[in-house]
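Postdoc handover notes: sequence design on the structure in folder B. Input tokens:
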């Protein structure tokens, strides 16, 4: 578990992750200097996303969830094709 946590913290750093880290640090500094708790909470949100690579930042979904959604969409399309082409319909007796 600790090994997995360290791996998440040190790998897969992309530009949006650095932006979220910078924004989180900037908001944390602003929240601390002006004693604004709302800025502090917002900074925690961005710092958590940057540290643990969670959330979707500009289409770079953490944990390959975008790829999984694309696969499930393709599977749904495969199952719907026979019905759209008329192969899966029931023929009426006339």
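Designed sequence:
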């Amino acid at each position: 578990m600790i090994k997995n946590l360290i791996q998440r913290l040190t790998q897969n750093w992309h530009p949006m992750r650095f932006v979220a880290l910078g924004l989180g640090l900037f908001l944390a500094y602003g929240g601390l200097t002006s004693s604004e708790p709302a800025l502090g909470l917002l900074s925690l949100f961005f710092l958590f996303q940057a540290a643990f690579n969670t959330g979707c930042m500009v289409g770079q979904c953490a944990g390959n969830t975008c790829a999984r959604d694309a696969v499930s969409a393709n599977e749904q399309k495969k199952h719907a094709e026979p019905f759209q082409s008329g192969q899966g319909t029931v023929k009426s007796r006339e």
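Context for whoever picks this up: Residues 2-81 form one domain. Don't rerun without checking with the PI first.
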